[in-house]
Amino acid sequence: MNSPSRVISFVNAGHFIDHYSMLIFAAAVIIMGPALGMAYSELLPYATPGFVAFGAGSLLTGWLGDRWSRRHMMLIFFVGIGASMIAVGFAQTPVQLGAALLAIGMFASIYHPVGTAMIVSYADRLGREMGINGVWGNLGVASSALVTGVIGQYLGWRFAFIVPGVVTVLIGIGFAMSVVHEDRKGSKQAAAQARVAKQDMWRVILSLLIVVIAISTTFNAVTVALPKLFAERLADLTKSPALLGVIAACVYVFGAMTQYTIGRLLDRHSLKTVALPLSFMLAPFLYLAASLSNLPLIVVSIGIVMGAFGQVTVNDAMVGKYTTEEWRSRAYAVRYFVGFTAAGASVGLVAWLYEQGGFVTMLHAFAALCLLAIAAAIILPREIRTPQPV
């Protein structure tokens, strides 16, 4: 038997690595452009295939997690994504760069359907563990901007990929030595924890599809665009890539705290009770951010990441609560296929909107999209809850 705390610790580390690796390019592209002689809008689309693979690959990886082995899939994740980051650092042409970024996306697609299902299987208190797991993912986002900015400024953009790639492979070796394959179908979390009336299940599915598309697209757009937004709008405060990374990291810390808080609330209250007030955060903050700069922009950006990361925790908990162990990885696979495929399209959309009208047009467009999150929360039915351990 595996130690639940050890398994969850490695899975949490995987969440950190998953988001960190996917966003190195978003931060490094600012200094990669001049080095490669390409503009921001020309270079950014090379990340699109990787983000599409991030979502599309989840269907296969989720199926393999359920039918083969979640442990083996996580081992492939650690080693594969580490090697892919190293490959980006050695890329010499745009084609090689695009191929290596695609590989990162393919291996990154393993984590969410497989790793999140492992969290649900080993958790005593689902909301709490999902919240903590979300914090680790958020810290990966924050650290990516910070560490990439520092390494890129002092060692160059190539080492910003190579160093975390080597560390990830070493973590994978530790995982292989510490975690063994086992059957979790008899665990306490094997059954679904919450249910709704049978005639209302269509409302759960519709609500989930709407909010996943809206939030995943916005979440990815914000995390991709934030380094460039800060570089433009915080010019009166600083032009240092390292300091801009520190500011972005501090903003994301608030998102991490929100995820932990939302996770705890989900153990005590129904999904609808938590999701409805949270759904009203994103649209107004995105709209306000379009016209702000310097300190006011930082304050509003905190509201944006709190709303976005809080919604992600609700979405993941929704799947975990309504599915059984046998189908859990596949259920997460569908959730992340829809979400990350939409998110992949957001990279090209950010580049196109930026060309049309800069960040004003981009932020207004995503503010309008986030109105759908409110509709999704209203559609969600009240659940019939199963008592949980406290």
TrEMBL record:
User: What PROSITE patterns does the record tag this protein with?
Assistant: MFS
- Do the record's keywords include Transport? yes
Where does the record say this protein resides? Cell membrane
Keywords from the named record? Cell membrane, Membrane, Transmembrane, Transmembrane helix, Transport
Q: Name one GO molecular function term.
A: transmembrane transporter activity
Q: Matching PANTHER family, A to Z?
A: MULTIDRUG RESISTANCE PROTEIN MDTH, RESISTANCE PROTEIN MDTM, PUTATIVE-RELATED-RELATED
Major facilitator superfamily (MFS) profile domain boundaries:
7-385
Specify the protein name. Answer: MFS transporter
Signal peptide, first to last residue: none
Q: Name one GO cellular component term.
A: plasma membrane
Task: Classify the protein's membrane topology as the record does.
Answer: Multi-pass membrane protein
Q: Where are the transmembrane segments?
A: 20-40, 46-65, 72-91, 97-123, 135-155, 161-180, 201-222, 242-262, 274-290, 296-314, 334-354, 360-380
Q: Which organism is it from?
A: Bradyrhizobium forestalis
